[in-house]
Amino acid sequence: MFRLDILAATRTLEKTMPFILYRLLLCLGVGLTFLLATLIGAGTIIAFSALAKNSSALVGVGASLGFLACGYAAYHFRAVWFRVLTASHLALLADHVRQHAVPVGKAQIGHAGRRVSACFPSAAELNRLDQAVKRCLMETVNLYPPLSVTHPGLQKAINLLAGRLFAAHHQTVLAWHFYTDSQNAWHSARVVLTCLAEQRQAVWRNRLIMTLFEWSGWAAAYWLMLYPTGLVAESLPVAVGLWQYVFAFVFASALKVAFLEPISETTIMEGILPRIQAVPAQDAALTEHSEAFRLIREREQE
Description:
The chain is mainly alpha-helical. Helix content is about 80%, strand content about 0%. The chain is built from 13 helices and no strands.
């Protein structure tokens, strides 16, 4: 039912190049923030331990504290990141998939932000919907396991891994709302979730293919990032140890979020969005077995 066409998705993404560049700058900015926080942590420890016999011994501790503090801040503001970057780009891509006119140039950034604000005036409401959709997708896998085994512990592990993979479709669910311009995002989510449950085998297989595509690209980016990070490490007066590999990981992940994830999601969107329709039988099944789906139905009526 759903066909993957990466080349067509790439052509669609080209139409949002100003937003892609904006996305890249934000992702690289986050990577540089991690680097700066790590250096500040290391420098602070060096300053406070300057009188110690071996002040460099605690540099790794300071660097780790700086890195972890930045990671905590990034986790704390993840809902803002999702609204400003991910949801805005989904809205822009949904307009292109349904062939609606969108601005060109940097005006795309403002247009995408207005689309999200019009649909979700509250960032908290967008986050609640997104979290409910993720839980429902994971519960769908528990209802329809992709692989059944006799060992309960192994079955639980399989369901967990498959559920996390299936939950990656939460962006597709949100994109459908922008695609249809529905007045009720909870109703839109309900429709898509029943369709995904009905076409679960094809949907799960396509998501697996695109996830492998993303991580293959990440591995290539990581290998490439080892060169510039290695040059920086060699120019420093002290040995950085494993930090070269940590920051190769960080910047490869930034490139994955900036380029590979949009390609993957656009490919899924173009294959699914025009073919989504409600499935009453799955609506009944999910209502019975999924607590998150029942919550979505309740919020739909409010």
